[in-house]
Structure to design on (303 residues):
């Protein structure tokens, strides 16, 4: 059974900007998401919601060490056609931490299943970036009847075993003395990105909360940094839903050869490479990302 760590303060003073905040993103551009918590295995999982309940459902899954607000600039556009939810994976964002740690791919996929059931998201579209993309594939393999379509962003068929992430897990998390310090030192993981400064500021502000000593600490449980090795190569043929595999042209995470192999193995898949993007595809090139996703989803809807 999981439980939240007691020293986590749930307030986000840096993220509560009315009108146009200092990050340059207006409330309208944010789409004014609604916030929900869903109890799963004794821990509250947090998700954001855009759009109307009459539209077909779409679930967004962020990558490792990230959170649901990474999708703030993407979700409102998707909500023109879909009822959009963005989940904070366990141990990330405003979702609870598990003690003892339980952050394997199967744990995340089980949470997705429970959230989809709780929200009554029949035949949902799943879009996942990095770790979230791997979790989405794992869920689609296990429950193909529940997935309308799948978009997997810059993640390959194998996960886990990174020595760098194992080392990073043991390093004490950074503490930021104030907002200025946060915005000066905050970096993505991996750090390389061409995202706009306004977008990075928005992500940074939602990545921390006030610690008991007054410092700003990252919301992510560092125990989430490592996973047991997993390989889906032999299971991709079981994914029967229309699938879009996407990589960034400059990505070091997924090669063009891996993208081609995944498309070949998956029965109803296509692949796309986003020019000028690295691993953080939808941050680096948001319009190109949206264009590719919307084109794919329109083709799925027409069938």
């Amino acid at each position: 059974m999981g439980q939240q760590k007691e020293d986590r303060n749930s307030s986000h003073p840096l993220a509560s900007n009315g009108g146009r905040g200092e990050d340059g993103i207006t409330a309208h551009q944010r789409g004014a998401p609604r916030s929900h918590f869903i109890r799963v295995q004794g821990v509250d999982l947090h998700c954001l919601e855009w759009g109307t309940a009459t539209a077909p459902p779409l679930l967004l899954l962020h990558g490792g060490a990230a959170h649901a607000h990474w999708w703030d600039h993407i979700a409102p556009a998707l909500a023109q056609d879909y009822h959009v939810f963005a989940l904070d994976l366990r141990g990330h964002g405003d979702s609870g931490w598990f003690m003892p740690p339980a952050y394997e791919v199967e744990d995340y996929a089980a949470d997705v299943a429970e959230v989809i059931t709780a929200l009554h998201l029949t035949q949902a579209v799943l879009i996942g970036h990095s770790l979230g993309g791997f979790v989405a594939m794992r869920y689609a393999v296990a429950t193909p009847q529940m997935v309308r379509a799948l978009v997997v962003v810059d993640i390959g068929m194998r996960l886990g075993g990174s020595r760098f992430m194992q080392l990073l897990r043991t390093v004490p998390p950074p503490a930021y003395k104030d907002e200025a310090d946060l915005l000066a030192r905050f970096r993505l993981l991996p750090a390389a990105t061409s995202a706009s400064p306004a977008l990075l500021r928005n992500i940074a502000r939602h990545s921390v909360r006030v610690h008991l000593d007054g410092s700003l600490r990252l919301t992510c449980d560092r125990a989430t940094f490592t996973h047991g090795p997993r390989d889906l190569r032999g299971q991709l043929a079981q994914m029967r839903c229309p699938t879009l595999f996407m990589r960034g042209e400059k990505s070091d995470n997924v090669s063009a050869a891996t993208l081609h192999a995944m498309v070949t193995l998956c029965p109803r898949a296509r692949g796309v490479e986003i020019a000028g993007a690295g691993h953080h595809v939808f941050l680096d090139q948001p319009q190109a990302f949206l264009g590719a996703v919307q084109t794919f989803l329109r083709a799925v809807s027409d069938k």
